[in-house]
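Hey, resending since the last one bounced:
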Amino acid sequence: GRTETFKIVSGIYKRDFLRGGAIELDDRAVRYLVPAEAVADGIVYVTEDRKSEGIFETMGIAENLFGGLLAAGREKAWVINQQEMRQLSAEWTKTL
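The structure tokens again:
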């Protein structure tokens, strides 16, 4: 249903070309092979079940935010700077 459709649109699931339709954005056909391609076009999927799909339940806000940046490729880190994580967390907490 709805969840599967949005996962296809955002590049998480692959379209079934035999039974599927077309996805268009700004009058052009799009096919996202990975979510990063959809993100580049401004499309993101926010899960309904954030507890099981959206967060690391045993980690704090800073670790979850930084984990998201690592997954998105926005941070390249072999060693995680704890002070940087806390600063990031404080900025987002203030913003939200």
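The two ends are 31 Å apart (CA to CA).

Sorry for the duplicate.
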